[in-house]
Amino acid sequence: MARIGITTTVPVEVIYAAGHVPVDLNNVFVSSPACGELIEEAELAGFPRSFCAWIKGIYGAVRRMPDLGAVVAVTQGDCSNTHALMETLQCEGMEVIPFAYPYERDYDLLRAQVEGFARRLGTTLEEAQAEMRRLDRVRRKARRVDELSWKEGLVRGLENHLALVSCSDFEGDPEGFATKLDLLLEEVAKRRRDEGFRRAEDMVRLGYVGVPPMAPELYEYLESLGARVVYNETQRQFSLPFDTGDLVEKYRRYSYPYSIFYRLRDIRREAARRRLRGLIHYVQSFCFRQVEDIILRRSLDLPMLTLEMDRSSRLDARTRMRLENFVSVLRKDRG
Amino acid sequence: MDVRYGVDLGSRRVKVAAEQDGGGYRYLGPFDTAAFYRDHVEPGGGGGTLLYGGLGMEEGLPLAVTGYGRARLGGGALAVPELEAVVAGVRELTGLRDAVILDVGGQDSKALLMKDGRLADFAANDRCAASSGRFMENMCAALGMSLEELGGHWEDPVELSSTCAIFGESELVGLLGEGVPRERLAAGVNHAILRRLLPLLARFPAASLVLTGGVAYNNALRRLIGERLGTEPLVPHPPDFVAAVGCCRLGARVEEGDDGRI
Predict the structure, then answer these.
(1) Which of A96, A158, B173, B203 could form a disulfide with A219 if both were Cys (CB 3.0 to 4.6 A apart)?
(2) Pairing of strands A3-6, A68-76
(3) What is the reported pTM?
(4) Among partner residues A310, A318, A324, which is closest to B81 by beta-carbon distance?
(5) How, if at all, do strands A278-284 and B25-32 pair?
(6) Is A332 within 8 Å of B82 when comparing Cβ atoms?
(7) Do B84 and A303 touch (CB under 8 A)?
């Protein structure tokens, strides 16, 4: 059994089926008390200051994980900065396993990728398929948390974010993570009788699109302004909430690695059914996805705040000012 | 006689507007922000307390505060969102209800869309202050010019290519060393600021454009924006006190029981 690092969501069923444990390196980095140091370490190694902080943080995290057996490199469906990271790690002796999402979501090409990935780890698609049934039991719980967020308004934005984002690797322990979700669901059920708990209904309902934030305190800050995130686009995608028993099809429906136009379909549908009043588009400094802001603004008919963050896990005064004014504009829209 | 105060705690300067009995305003400042905190704010738990006496302000009158530092001023002051304050100030000082407002402050630039007297949308600069008052100050220091003098040059600009305020300064010094005339460099600085402001303005159709913040004193920039957009921007007087005046207006509304506006 080895720990296998992932830098974005990949078919973790394959990793579990091979008897290994996936570790989402983004979560290791962002939840580390030393996340600033990890970035610094990457810069000392030569990563530019004007470069994605997620990549630098992951690099720093990997360097401190001597027990990591290999890292999965998504060579299509993520970004070229990841390529550079993988090659740097390779150069330092790390085993790198490539995986590519076909841009046009072609079933056969994706199937070949999953099969190749399974072969590389010494397992098969069939075994991964069996593993999916086990993981789907946990995903259903995460999906329930998400539904309670927007249908009943009983889940805080941060709780929604954490429940869904953790589905990328199930914290390396699907059953343990399922227990955490059960506890959260119990807690949320109690809120039905708690008059003191603010429902999303009485707040400004927001959607969050783009990659997960460098500063999760964003969610609590929004709550303090009377706004709640009831849709986390990418995090929800990590939980693969798709009703299909076919593993390849499941990862074909997953939107993050494919074209923005496919993502837009998902965002539009969810914005309508979750009755969102506005969207926060989070962009990481120096990320190619900053350009996607153009397409999102042209394609979505909702007020949108673009929020750029670089390396700090705290919200600075500028970011707070933007959030505060955005919420205040939306509140007035209500008339 | 003062009836209420609005304080804009900006990143570089603090501006105070004192609303007068019977209308009109008295303006105090602008003060250097760091010096203001040192000289006029008593530190304490739950935010500092404003020392009215040294400022020539009357204690006990209603006070509304905006700007980056407002959370640090407790003592019962009403905290107002910054962009709301700018919109309220523009309404008060220009009488307009529909406009695009370009507010260029010490380290931030924002384009605000005012519709029917309310903030309807806004765009803010990215994580770089090279289109702000601070940038202009630094460039003036390098050129040995006052802000007013800098605002006198817009023709035959030198192309400044640096993306960062600090490198921009080095670039300027290098060009000075090469013997490039200061006038052309000053024009280059104004063009560089304009280039960074245009993407913000591109978001909104500017039927009427209002320019606020201390940078609005820059004549050349006003002229360049006018040329570029085909409409001369309107500058409320005094442009750097707009948010402080807005604080007074929003404070007055809350006193009248209209707290739905903030």
Answers:
(1) A158
(2) parallel
(3) 0.88
(4) A324
(5) unpaired
(6) no
(7) no
Output the six-digit token pair for B163. 């993306």
Distance (Å, rounded) from C-alpha A226 to C-alpha B260? 13
pLDDT in tens, A102-144: 999 999 999 999 999 999 999 999 999 999 999 999 999 999 9
User: Do residues B30 and B147 lie in contact, with contact meaning Cβ atoms separated by under 8 Å?
Assistant: no
Q: Is the pLDDT of residue A335 over 50?
A: no
Q: Residue A328: its chain B contacts at CB < 8 A?
A: 81, 83-84, 119, 262
Do residue A328 and residue B82 have CB atoms under 8 angstroms apart? Answer: no
CB atoms within 10 A of CB A190: 10
* CB distance B100 to B210 below 8 Å: yes
What's residue B200's pLDDT?
87
For the ranges A93-102, B99-108, B189-198, the maximum mean pLDDT occurs at A93-102
Strands B118-124 and B109-115: antiparallel
| Mean pLDDT, residues A38-59 taken together | 95
The predicted pLDDT at position A333 comes to: 64
In sequence order, what are the residues at sequence separation of 6 or more whose Cβ sits closer than 8 angstroms to the Cβ of residue B257? none
User: What is the distance in angstroms between the Cα of A314 and the nearest Cα belonging to chain B?
Assistant: 15
Using CA atoms of A8, A12, A14, A20 in order, give the dihedral in degrees to the nearest 10: 100
